[in-house]
Design goal:
Layout (H helix, E strand, L loop, with lengths): L1 E7 L2 H4 L3 H14 L3 E4 L1 H4 L2 E2 L2 E2 L1 H12 L4 E5 L11 H17 L3 E5 L7 H21 L2 E5 L5 H11 L4 E6 H7 L4 H11 L3 E6 L12 H5 L1 H7 L15 H11 L2 E5 L4 H4 L3 H13 L7
Parallel strand pairs: 1-2, 1-10, 2-5, 5-6, 6-7, 7-8, 8-9, 9-10
Antiparallel strand pairs: 3-4
Helix pairs in contact: 5-6, 6-7
Protein name: Xylose isomerase
InterPro entries: IolE/XylAMocC-like, Xyl_isomerase-like_sf, Xyl_isomerase-like_TIM-brl
Keywords: Isomerase
Amino acid sequence: MVRLIGINIDTKRLSGSEEKFKEELEKFECLGFDCVEIPPAGLDVIFNGEIVPERLNRIAQVLKRSSLKFTVHGPDPVDLTSDRKEDLQILSATIDFASSIGALTVVHHSGWFGKDEEKKRREIENLKRLCTKLERTNVCLVVENTKQLVEHTLQIVTAANHPQVKLLIDVGHLFLRVKGDEQKLLEQLTLGLPHTFELHVHDNFGKPEDDAESSLSRELHFAYLYGVGDLHLPLGLGKIPFERVFELVRERFDGIVVLEINDLNRFERDIPETLEKLKALSNVGGVQRA
């Protein structure tokens, strides 16, 4: 069951602007979303691995005036497979931020891609180090696939073996990982959805940037022309078979769906229609959102 439908507020769009943050919160609340995904890196609430209390207090006051629920997207560069002590420190501070604003989840990009067993061990150990904080703060950490298969992120979550460490499937990332192979996409979703607490949706053409000339993927405005890479398009502009995806979602999933659209200059006008698509896809066959 799809319990909430949310949308992301992108790090680059904010670039530290509290006014921009307020504007987007109001906009998405008016459009009818249930929650928003908040990036602490876009709000400058964490500097040098530590919470900045004054910034946190101002952001918390803004959020109190909103009826929306919140999720938090951890900073993308954080890699728990690395030896950098800062990564664990920053993710720990992100959990504190999420707890302070009453967020439902913190999103973490898995750094293990299915081959290096030492990296796998390191990520699992670091996740386990965070479990006491997760219990104390009552925050759920969701582990997201980026350039790996869902079966690999599921291995990480299973090994962490904690009720507050759960799976997040990013459908757009997965479609790129399987190079647009619909059958492989559906197989991975079938495997992962029963264990998934959060789902990220956005469209693309199934053409990984690693397979393209660097000049086509380095500049996003050219990547759109060639349909290359992680474009974060509104549903229907790419080639992901969302009707088939949501047949599985309605059967196997129980949690939050977040639409991730990064470029509002291009796609803001498409968001209301995409929200209506998501509501319809979630409710086909009489399955109602909670």
